[in-house]
């Protein structure tokens, strides 16, 4: 399997792009995690992986989207984005996740990324704006991997994403990327309506046949004003998905990303471990994209690493999340998150200004944490890589809740 994967990369992708990935993301990314670990020893948290929502606007209207995509357009402007990335690079970072809204609706997106040939960017996109010219430009730049979301069959995609012909427009974007030999990924937010179609070996075979190099199965999270909680996976489905990912990683020549388990299969929250935090289009610094509260902003005179290291809100979020669950605090204990936001008087980062009310209205439910049912990695490569570069980094050893008396977790 490893040989088949290596052969695919060597034969199907542009060699220059493979080199950029290996150097900018592989080597420099590994070094940035080492620097992160050294900072942790000093009690300083600055994530090696920043996720930046560069724009709130989007051409689609997905179920369960927490971004105010129809509100007045807000972007991180070119100069603020440049400064942010430069400051993060100065602190040792080299990888950035670019999120939205739909990032390709940001008029200066590729211009901004072209200023950082020494960094690597993963763009989360619906693919609709990736024309042949855009794909050619990404190939020329060499420091970008598009991660294109596919949410199911034609019918399911239209229903999930609130528009018509969504899948065909998305697949055109995927084809343009593949035609230009980009290292292309496809991701899915797995939910009730696409589980049976996409959590399937034959779907992975189709992606491999098309030339897609990696995939990422997120789990649907019922957030925002149109939360659609009926789409959530059951505990059995979450377990089945985890088992599927572990099996396929050891079998198929396609990389499969997940962000919620260590090599032994123990759950973790990337925001609780501090390996990743999020910046919204207004510049607000949030623990993660669905925790839409912030005390600090990138529009600060201090560099981004100092702002994050000195943030009491982020510190308390990590402690609260880690002391509550190894899973997702938003899903399992929205009440505690609300208390934390009140304690810090953290600003609601939504345009709709209903984030606090939404938290209070949420029903607590299970998340990725499934104690006693952990499924360790079967693939030695994933297991080894996670041991060094993706684990809980000791976050769950001695967390102290900043709240007076958090109640015993209640999951439905
Ligand atoms: S709080 Fe939940 S959604 Fe946010 S990073 Fe943690 S597990 Fe993921």
Number of strands: 11
Proportion of residues in β-strands: 5-15%
Integer-rounded radius of gyration: 20 Å
How many angstroms does the end-to-end distance come to? 39 Å
Structural class by secondary-structure content: alpha/beta
Spatial arrangement of strands, main beta sheet? 7-6-5-4-3-2-1-8-9
CATH superfamily caption = Aldolase class I
Overall residue-averaged pLDDT value = 94
- The third-level CATH topology is TIM Barrel
Order of helices and strands: HHEHEHEHEHHEHHEHEHEEEHHHHEHH
Keywords: Iron, Iron-sulfur, Metal-binding, S-adenosyl-L-methionine
Organism: Caulifigura coniformis
GO molecular function: catalytic activity; iron-sulfur cluster binding; metal ion binding
Domain Radical SAM core: 44-264
Fold and architecture overview:
The chain has 412 residues and is of the alpha/beta class. It has one domain: TIM Barrel, CATH 3.20.20.70. 42% of the residues lie in helices and 11% in strands. The chain contains 17 helices and eleven strands. The protein has helices spanning 2-12, 15-41, 78-90, 109-114, 132-141, 154-161, 166-179, 195-198, 201-210, 235-249, 270-273, 304-309, 312-324, 329-332, 334-344, 355-361, 380-389; strands spanning 49-53, 95-99, 120-125, 144-149, 185-190, 214-219, 255-257, 276-279, 285-286, 293-294, 347-348. The strands form two sheets. Strands 7-6-5-4-3-2-1-8-9 form a nine-stranded mixed β-sheet. A two-stranded antiparallel ribbon has the order 10-11. Helix 13 runs antiparallel to helix 15. The two termini are 39 Å apart. It binds iron/sulfur cluster (SF4). Iron/sulfur cluster binds next to helix 11 and helix 14. Keywords: Iron, Iron-sulfur, Metal-binding, S-adenosyl-L-methionine. Residues 44-264 form the Radical SAM core domain. Pfam families: Radical_SAM. This is Cyclic pyranopterin monophosphate synthase. InterPro entries: Aldolase_TIM (IPR013785), rSAM (IPR007197), rSAM_sf (IPR058240).
């Amino acid at each position: 399997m490893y040989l088949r994967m290596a052969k695919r990369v060597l034969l199907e992708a542009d060699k220059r792009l493979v080199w950029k990935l290996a150097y900018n993301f592989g080597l420099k990314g590994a070094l940035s995690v080492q620097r992160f670990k050294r900072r942790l020893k000093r009690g300083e948290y600055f994530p090696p992986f920043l996720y930046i929502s560069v724009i709130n606007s989007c051409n689609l209207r997905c179920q369960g989207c927490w971004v105010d995509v129809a509100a007045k357009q807000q972007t991180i402007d070119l100069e603020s984005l440049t400064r942010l990335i430069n400051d993060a690079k100065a602190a040792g970072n080299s990888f950035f996740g670019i999120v939205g809204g739909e990032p390709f609706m940001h008029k200066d997106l590729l211009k901004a990324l072209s200023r950082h040939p020494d960094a690597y960017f993963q763009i989360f996109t619906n693919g609709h704006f990736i024309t042949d010219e855009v794909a050619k430009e990404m190939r020329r730049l060499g420091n970008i991997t598009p991660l294109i979301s596919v949410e199911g069959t034609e019918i399911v995609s239209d229903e999930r994403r609130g528009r018509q012909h969504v899948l065909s427009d998305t697949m055109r974007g995927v084809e343009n990327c593949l035609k230009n030999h980009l290292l292309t990924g496809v991701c899915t937010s797995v939910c009730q309506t696409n589980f049976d179609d996409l959590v399937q070996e034959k779907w992975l075979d189709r992606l491999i046949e098309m030339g897609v190099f990696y995939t990422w199965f997120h789990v649907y999270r019922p957030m925002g004003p149109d939360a659609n909680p009926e789409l959530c996976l059951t505990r059995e489905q979450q377990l089945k998905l985890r088992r599927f990912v572990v099996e396929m990683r050891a079998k198929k020549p396609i990389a499969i990303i997940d962000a919620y388990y260590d090599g032994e299969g123990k759950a973790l929250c990337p925001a609780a471990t501090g390996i990743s935090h999020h910046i919204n289009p207004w510049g607000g610094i949030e623990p993660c994209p669905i925790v839409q509260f912030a005390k600090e902003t990138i529009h600060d005179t201090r560099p981004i690493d100092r702002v994050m290291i000195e943030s009491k809100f982020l510190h308390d979020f990590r402690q609260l999340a880690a002391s509550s669950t190894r899973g997702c605090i938003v899903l399992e204990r929205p009440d505690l998150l609300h208390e934390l936001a009140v304690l810090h008087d953290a600003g609601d980062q939504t345009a709709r200004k209903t984030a606090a009310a939404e938290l209070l209205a949420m029903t607590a439910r299970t998340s990725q944490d499934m104690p006693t049912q952990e499924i360790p990695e079967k693939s030695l490569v994933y297991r080894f890589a996670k041991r060094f570069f993706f684990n809980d980094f000791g976050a769950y050893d001695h967390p102290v809740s900043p709240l007076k008396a958090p109640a015993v977790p209640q999951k439905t």
